Amino acid sequence: xxxxxxxxxxxxxxxxxxxxxxxxxxxxxxxxxxxxxxxxxxxxxxxxxxxxxxxxxxxxxxxxxxxxxxxxxxxxxxxxxxxxxxxxxxxxxxxxxxxxxxxxxxxxxxxxxxxxxxxxxxxxxxxxxxxxxxxxxxxxxxxxxxxxxxxxxxxxxxxxxxxxxxxxxxxxxxxxxxxxxxxxxxxxxxxxxxxxxxxxxxxxxxxxxxxxxxxxxxxxxxxxxxxxxxxxxxxxxxxxxxxxxxxxxxxxxxxxxxxxxxxxxxxxxxxxxxxxxxxxxxxxxxxxxxxxxxxxxxxxxxxxxxxxxxxxxxxxxxxxxxxxxxxxxxxxxxxxxxxxxxxxxxxxxxxxxxxxxxxxxxxx
Length: 364
Fold this sequence. Notes:
alpha/beta, 12 helices, globular
């Protein structure tokens, strides 16, 4: 079947949970014999990823302004019209903001799958108007899509509670079993001591709670461990600038956005992974940390409450003292590696289940 994808910034090697999801899912669907085109936002295309195909997936670049308040809506509008010219069997739209355009896609005669990656209107970076628009996108996508996929039980409950919608298909985010690195060259270049650092990963936005983590780390005093934050800001703003200054003031190591072997080294050699988020859909970074057998400390938001975590892994979101206490307790216990059951998060199974949703829509 012919599938066109929008709602994502694009693939490959573009920062973001939706982007990681698409980078893993669509090459698998292409390998299963499907014709897949991902429409990318032009503002995220660089010399490093200026390609027309990635692992069997066609890449098509469509204009998007690099401005967070209008980027998604303008790009998705143009992408929907572009998708119509490709005559796909179905259009797959990711995230609730871009799903504002689901009715337009249906009006143009396309069958549409929406994947709801979480209530983005809860993100702290958005103002009142933006939150209203994004929530409208969730409502439109839920009402007008042929099928709705959700990545967590929490999101399914939101759709049932807010819209009385009970037809969503639960298909988790996934994670690949890693081949752990045997090198420390990248760590050595940054002065990171293997096995003696706390790690977190993500975009520099307020809802990730990295400011809380740095404050908690500072309260630990001379704990004998470094704090490493891997990530950066999509759009440099006052928060990201203040976060970088806070990190510098507290001796935190910022790696920037990393992929491949540098990320593999950083994940392989961490002592503890921390996710202090206020908002998540189903955090791929947490799944990746678990795949590396890392001990974890995570905020107690519903999306982080995975079945194979334990009560001692959680702290109350936003409580810096509780976060510092949880980290200190973990480091003192020297738990080391842990084993988690990640069977539900297998990407090959996720691809097969997504294909089944497509087939149901097309009556195959």
